[in-house]
Amino acid sequence: MLQKEQEIGLQAVSAAMAMAAIIQKETTGRDTLTKSDRSPVTIADFAVQALICKVLNRHFPRLHIVGEEDSLAIRRPENKELYAKILSYLRKTDPGFDEKGLCHCIDLGGAEPAGTFWTLDPIDGTKGFLRGEQFAIALALIQNGQIGLGILGCPNLGHEAGGTLFWAIPGQGSWSIPSRGGSAEAVRVSERIETRQMKFVESYESSHSDKDRQIWISKRLGIENSPEQMDSQVKYGIVASGQADIYLRIPHPASPEYREKIWDHAAGSLIVEEAGGRVSDISGKPLDFSKGMTLADNRGILATNGRIHSRVLEIIAELDGQK
Ligand code: AMP
Ligand code: MG
To answer: Which of 182, 164, 127, 300 is closest to 238 using CA atoms?
Structure first.
C-alpha cells in the first residue's frame, strides 16, 4: 500500500533537501521577501515547492497538493532577479526545468484540502534556514483526515550534519536514512522514564509558543536540562529518534486565535507516533487533520516518547487550573 507514493515522495524530498542545503549555504540571510503576515519567504521556499509539486504532479496527476507557498510575489516585475535565481537553482537539479513553467509548478500547490491530498511545507522553519540553522522539508499524504504517509527531510540534522530523511506509514513504523545515502534504519523514541534526565525541545522563535509556561512545566517535571530551542519539524525528528523526550508548543498569549497549519504537523506527528511515541494537543485530544488547512479543533501540541505523555498533560491541566 502506498508504495509508489512512498518511493516518489522520498525521491522528491531527497532531491529538494540537496537543493535547499546548497541554497542555504550560498544565500543565507539574502534573497528573501516578506509575506502579508510579515513572515519571511526565501528563494528556497519557491524552488522546493516547484520541484516537489512538479514531480508529484507528473506521477499522481489526480492528487491535489496543499502547499504553503504561491507564486504571486515572484510574478512581480521588481522580483525578476529572484525569479531568475530560483530557476537557476532548479536547473542544477532538473536541467530541463522550463522557465515559463515555474509559477505553474509552484501553484500546483494551491489546492484546497479535501478527500485524499498531499500537503507540503517546502521550507519549514524559514527563520532557522535564514540563520543557517535547522529547517525541514515536510510532505504528507492525507486520506480523508488520516495521515497515510509522512516524509520529513532534515538537511542539517545528524549523520555528521549531512542530514537525515525520515518517513512513516501507519502500522509500518518510522524509518530514516542519511541524506548522503546509506541503509534504512528503524527509528524509535527513547525509553527514558526518569524525568530528571529528559530532554525538552521547543520553538526557537519566542512568538510561536508560551516559553514561560513551558519552562514552568519542564521544572515541575523535574527536568534538569534547560529546554533546547530549534526551528521546524526537526523537533519531531528529534523526539522520534530518542534524542529528546518532550516537544511542547503551548499557544502564545499574544496569539490565542492562532491555529496550527496542517503542513506544520502532519509528517512529523506520524513519524513520532510510528516510532512508538504519542502526539496530541495540550488538552490530550488527538490532532484532527480533517478540518481544512488548520488544526481548527486543537490547541497547541504535545509530542513525547509516550511514557511521560499523561504526566505532562496533568501538569498542563494543573497550570490551567491556576489561571
Ligand atoms: P517552529 O519553527 O516550530 O516555531 O514552527 C514554525 C512554524 O510556526 C511556521 O511554519 C509557522 O507556520 C508557525 N507559526 C507562525 N506563527 C505562529 C504562532 N503565533 N504560533 C504558533 N506557530 C506559529
Ligand atoms: Mg512551516
So the answer is: 164
